[in-house]
Every structure is written in C-alpha cells, then in structure tokens.
Amino acid sequence: MRKEDCFYLGKVVSKYSFKGEVLAKIDADEPHLYESMESVLVLLGNNLVPFFIDRCRLHKSALLRIDFEEVKDESAADRILGAELYLPLTLLPKLSGNKFYYHEVIGFTLIDATHGDIGVIESVNDSASQVLFEAKKGEKELLIPVTDDIITKVDRKSKAIHVKTPDGLVELYLD
C-alpha cells in the first residue's frame, strides 16, 4: 500500500513492557475509536509494513497500548520505537456538515462572503499553532485561518468552502 492512500494515525513513542508492548500516541480527536484495530501499517524506512495486533487498549488520554503479534520482546519493540503508524483512507469515519479532513478539501474553492471566489486550496498548513488554508488565486497565494468563526459552509457536492473572512484579510493578498 502506498503512503498517499493512507492517513497518519500516530507514532510509537515508548516501550511499555519487557514482553514487547508499546505505547503509541494517536493523532485523533477520539483515540478510543482505534482500540478495536486488527492491524496497522508501520512505516519502516520507506515502506509501510502491515503489523497485526493481538491486543490494543486505551492507555491514558491519547495513548494506545499495543501488543503486536510480531513484537514479543524488548529488542523487537526497540526496532519500531519512533515508527509512524498509518491506516488506509477507506477506514476514516465519514464526516458531514462543516467537519472535514484536511486531505479531503485539497482542490476545493474558497468562496468568501464579500469577495466571492478567492482561490483554490492547495494545502492545509497545520505545523503552526493556527491551522491555515494555503490557497492560490492566479499567481497570488492566500493564507486563510481554519476556524469555526470563518468557515460558514462546507459544500462537498460543488467542492467549495464558504468563508467569511475578517475585514482586510483578503485585500492583503489580492490588492
């Protein structure tokens, strides 16, 4: 399976026991949804390798305690320490309304309440404290904050996100 066909689930952050159990920090709002996984893809080098799970349970807030079939001692756990975990995109729960996955809205048009079409979303930057849509209108690049106050409607049928940007924000980029 290719990495492009998967979503990032989390990362193996520490060993839990001498029997090879590990703790994985899950990057999800509801980590308990992943307690019943039968397998996960582990990024080893440049390859996604399927690992089957004997037992998986929630361990404190966003950590999963995982007992892999293939990992039964500390040295095997050491080999996957720091490894990223992925699942196929088909396993993502469907979202509706104004909720969306970042990968889902790439290519959507941003429609501002005042300015109309202000560009097409090329990526979503979530590396800073404020998540931003990175959109392009002609040769100009716009950065629009991703907040409930700004997003008024997600229209999946027409592939558009309707926004109400603060006064002066769009003019910074397009004038």
TrEMBL record:
Matches recorded under Pfam families: PRC_RimM, RimM
Compartment(s): Cytoplasm
Superkingdom, taxonomy of origin: Bacteria
Segments forming domain Ribosome maturation factor RimM PRC barrel: 103-169
Main localization of the protein described in the UniProt heading: cytoplasm
Residues spanning the membrane: none
Residue ranges constituting the RimM N-terminal domain according to the UniProt record: 9-88
UniProt keyword list: Chaperone, Cytoplasm, Ribosome biogenesis, rRNA processing
Domain remark text: The PRC barrel domain binds ribosomal protein uS19.
Annotated family: Belongs to the RimM family.
Primary role: An accessory protein needed during the final step in the assembly of 30S ribosomal subunit, possibly for assembly of the head region. Essential for efficient processing of 16S rRNA. May be needed both before and after RbfA during the maturation of 16S rRNA. It has affinity for free ribosomal 30S subunits but not for 70S ribosomes.
Record note on quaternary structure: Binds ribosomal protein uS19.
The protein, known as: Ribosome maturation factor RimM
Organism lineage string: Bacteria, Pseudomonadati, Bacteroidota, Flavobacteriia, Flavobacteriales
Gene name of the encoded protein: rimM
